[in-house]
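Q: What does the assembled structure look like for these inputs?
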Amino acid sequence: AQTVTQSQPEMSVQEAETVTLSCTYDTSESDYYLFWYKQPPSRQMILVIRQEAYKQQNATENRFSVNFQKAAKSFSLKISDSQLGDAAMYFCAYRRYGATNKLIFGTGTLLAVQP
Amino acid sequence: EAGVTQSPTHLIKTRGQQATLRCSPISGHTSVYWYQQALGLGLQFLLWYDEGEERNRGNFPPRFSGRQFPNYSSELNVNALELEDSALYLCASSQRVTGAPFPYNEQFFGPGTRLTVL
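A:
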């Protein structure tokens, strides 16, 4: 069975600094998607970034980028120039290709941004 | 474009009662997913509906059921409520795409329904 592990329950970063959130996963599949979702206090889950496993190039969305290491089964999220609005719970998620289509989530990392 | 909507925002029930939660997907999305976010248990996949059919089910008892209507909106029903059913229930929707390696696009989430069972 696939699993997603986020080993950092809480992280803190100063405004304008850079922070990296860690995620590792376990799967025997070769084709899959990886995602980072953000859940602010409003509870709305917001898609931050996605990575297709078959793509070697790391995904980037403005201040958000990932470091995808397929062999190591690692998928970290880097937030550059952190802003107060980045404070939220961040979830790493995995989805395999195929009929199940379900997202498997990690336990989340609570990110605090200090002014 | 309107996002995924869920109703009600909060729902308070007593043990043994039934709860009905509703979800409207983003226009053009045919798939609806239900997830449970319970304290200490994280986000767990419940159900996936597409084109009116149940496509996949998570590891939950039959008390959890649902359906998808012709307009692609969905209902989640929880019968014989238990205290441990208290959680945030999130609905997500996705769009079927053609020509991609995988036929379903990423999932977009609604704001959730907070169910409290007393």
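DSSP finds no helices and twelve strands in chain A.
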